[in-house]
Amino acid sequence: xxxxDSSCTAAALFRDFKExxxxxxxxxxxxxxxAMSGRCKVEIKGVDAWNGLDVRLCExxxxxxxxxxxxVPGVQGLTDPASGVHMAAVCLHTRExxxxxxxFFRRSQPFSAAELSGAKGFMDLYCxxxxxxxxxHRASEYIGLINAGNAPCAxxxxxxxxxxxxxxxxxxxxxxxxxxCSKAKELLALCVDHWGGDVTMExxxxxxxxxxxxxxxxxxxxxxxxxxxRHLFAxxxxxxxxxxxxxxxxxxxxxxxxDYFRYLEGExxxxxxxxxxxxxxxEETNAWLxxxxxxx
Length: 296
Description:
The protein is of the alpha+beta class and 296 residues long.
């Protein structure tokens, strides 16, 4: 282990990764904590490596891939062709010209969408709890998501992975999609909740703009939100994932991989009691899922 962090933050992270089971779930052979100032300056706070993975190699990879790491918006899988080492880069904190990352390393195979999603959820929770000076009470949920997500294979040809259990996120080609419009992200979540069925304009307005009247202004808000999603998926070269027609929209369930869809289809996906946790309208489905799980 290499530590260059006088506050011992890196050492505490490495200890929690081991004790909470994140290392085991990711089948990681090492990790690094780094701070970056712009694309060029990398300050490595600490490196933890074992199973023959060289600490100096991990350091070197952080430096040689610094521009790719800096460009990661949330979480992304990276591979170094020369060494054959695979990396999961998770952004912990960002502000103007400064970012902090945790990098996980392994040599066996690239990190899957489920692993990237679980690692991001775990680290988001870690940062949130650290700010609240509390413990990692829900960390096991994300470990379960990683383990459960690795069991079945994604649908053939699917590039899109949607995480509905816990924090709602969308990944394309194992990379977190930055959905800057919060209402667009919520509308997409509502489409997930409908399991690929149509979401009408009236229902979307009622759920997303609950304090607005169903009038021309609210209809225009809905249309702009739909347009945002259509352009987003077109820019990601998967335009057929989200579709709309006059007064309704839907998610093409056959083109995405989603933990919620798998669970409904009877696959062994871990549900830890949280579903689309940022949206109040999802509480009814969450309660139904909890009853279903309790009934076995």
